[in-house]
Write a structure and sequence with these properties.
275 residues; mainly alpha; 2 domains; two-stranded antiparallel ribbon; 63% helix
Amino acid sequence: MESRLIDVLQPIKDNDYQVPGDQNLQELTTMMLQRIGSVHPVLRDDLIHTIFTTFIERDYYNEDQLKNILQSILNKNYLFYRIGSSKKEEDAVFKRSFSVLLIPPIIEKHQSQPFLKEEDVLRVWENLKKYMKQEMDHRGHVEGKGWAHAMAHAADAIYYVASCEEITSDHVLEMLPIIKEQFLIDQPYLFDEEERMVTAILAMFKKISSEQRVAWLETLLYERESWQDPSEDIIINNSKHLLRALYFRMLEGDYRELRQVLENLLRELRKQEAY
């Protein structure tokens, strides 16, 4: 089935994303959704995701169709597909991570041409919070299968939804601790996940006070429990990478006070290094 779908989709991409006259858009959409988590990297990433994004940008879908796609990807068969039962090395993550990656183009379309109600945007936010709490597969690039990159894709979605006027400081303050829990883990992030998340964090920082920003940043200062446990060194490295990424991104803009906070935190974090 996957090879047949590639045969259908590749000509569409090659022909500047024009849908052939004998191809029904709704049927094509259904086929792409069914294979959104394919382990075939060309089908999943180069074709399905790229075609979906282009179709959304070019207004191939009307508002009701976009709402239906959004509603579909937020359910247990997509964003939460086997999230509590699949092992970390299984392929279920591809379906989850490429479902969450469909949120940005839909929300971006809403920002330019509003069509979602406030409760729709808040529903997306609540599902992102729930997803962030539960995702445990942190692999970036998987040999032979391409990008999983769940946390980077989630970061992109958080950025776009957090930028919506419907999201308030209270919503942001609920998400930030979850991000902290996802980054202070004993598995290394190797593919710039922290850079993608910093973009989301800075969007959220616009909606909270300076005191609230500092309070959250201070939670990223990990204090080790043992000097003999190498897994804690991974946690410390993840913390350093996120803090450093924030610091260098804050070299632009009016962040002088926060940069000083970050410098102090990084100095303190060095005391937790085992060497």
